[in-house]
Amino acid sequence: MELVELASWLAGPAGGLITCLWLFQKFLNYQEKQLDKLIEEMQADRAMFKDAINKMDSRLSIVEIGVNDIKTHLLRGRKDE
Fold it and tell me: What is the model's pTM?
């Protein structure tokens, strides 16, 4: 195959296919990086969410103790009447 024939072959459909495959590979690599970044961000969000839930649970426990103390105090007040 001569250089002219090779050049015309690469500039034609085969060249288009090679360029398309190369661009597709670049696109897939970019998408993979974006998905990896998104997964990392989601893991960080999930860790924050777990911490927030644990804090709310501990605060709810404190409120429940306070409500039970008030309830006990009110019930004792009724018995004294």
Answer: 0.55
